[in-house]
Amino acid sequence: MEENIFCKNCGKELPPESSFCPYCMTKFTKETVIEPDLKKKSGKKLLLSVALIVLIAAVAVAVLPKMLKDSESSQNAFFEETLKSSDSYSKTETDTSASQNETHSIESENAEETKILFEADTETGFSGYSNKKGLSREAALVASFFASDCMRVPYDTLKSTDIYVNTSIKFDCVVIEKAKDYIIVEYGATAGFDGIYEPTGDAAAVKLSDVSSVNESDSLTFYAEYLGTDSFKLYGKSTEMPVFFAERYTDYVYTDVEMPLFTKEEITSIAHTVFGSKAVVRDAKNSDFASSIGDVEMNKGMFYTAQVGSSKYCFYTGESRFIYDCGSTFSDEAYILPTADMNGYYRLISYGNEGKSSVECYGKNQVKLWQRDFKGSDLPAIDYTEKYVYLVSNANLYILDAKTGENVIRQKYVGNKYDMRKTGDGILLLSFDRSEALMKTDLSGNVEWTAQVSFNLSDSMYGTVSPVWQTVNNNSFVQCEAYDGNGFSIGTYTAVISNDGKIIFEYK
Questions:
Q1: Which tens digits make up the pLDDT trace of 8-31?
Q2: Which residues share a beta bridge with 459?
Q3: Class of domain 155-251
């Protein structure tokens, strides 16, 4: 006959093999429940135990309804998790996406347990700051510098669906007509440095803050927000066409050749926001770098150096922009990200020879606030709010206190991930593997769903580039170059995935 078990916290009787108490929501392992051994207890001890349990149950019945009601009405979810004092772990799980034999540690066997209260954060992470309202001009400029993911979308697709509204789209075009505050362009048409004009006959309208800087017949590349379709006059006739708001644009040179998208003045403003007002910005020199990254002096406007005390940081201003520590070497690379409050920065470091990576947090005046080291030399996938830092390293998801760098919950195994987005209701994780290309967890890192797509999002064997990823209107837009089994490109692949993990549509 099975013995009854009871919750150690509230005393309620529990179903066999319970992993948590359905009355007070306390999580436990088998060792944390009360399992009375009736054969060994004396009658007096048994009566005392029963009386104590009845008393606890009565108290729980009196206070639980209010507790549950308050919990349901609260905007922030609270999770009781076990925080361990060590970052090394003993329980293992297998990463089937990497190696059938590779194991990943989860918790140190002898670590001292401490229970903490984890308040879930519903703020959007820094990756979504380019859409955040209320930012200062300086903060908005920093956010736009790091919002570099732009898709290419076929003209017919834009006209057939409104799902791309508010996404950022990159397209080449030739200017057809100018109006007061917008221009009409031929979407997809090019006339580059070789002078060869390639028409498409597809008209689109582009709204500009200043149309005086463009002229008819200019061949341009736009990075623009898609606004939907509307009617505009073209050659005196009303025509329905896609409409964009130009965020950035450059002269067209050749398809996918990157050109500078930020001016020296803008880079100076960004450097002052990230590193402080003493940062001095100038054109980059080859001698600025500990290891050569190419002839930066030949690419004027693409590279700038910010001198901050004895440190130098390189700003790359093309489509795939970033801030790079000039002291990096081929084996040890470091990149910079601003903190969410724009009062400091994170330094992400890959130590290739040592097989580890680090995240360092700096405040004002270059003062280091904390540092965390992780196994594996790959840079962690990361996003963050003012309260927490969310990152995946060595296939484990960490949530850290942004002020101290300490774990706020026990790390969770999620598999190898390339990128991540912190949303208002969870964490989205991107993988190169098609079988679990996108994963969503709740705000405390518990997996809710995974989505499978038709192609791997990258293939290092054939040198494919990293995927483009946007999260807009609760949908994820993932785009990459698709390759067949022989390494031949078969076109651009795009998948649109809803917030509940469903594939809305795919096309190639």
A1: 666 667 666 555 665 555 555 444
A2: none
A3: mainly beta
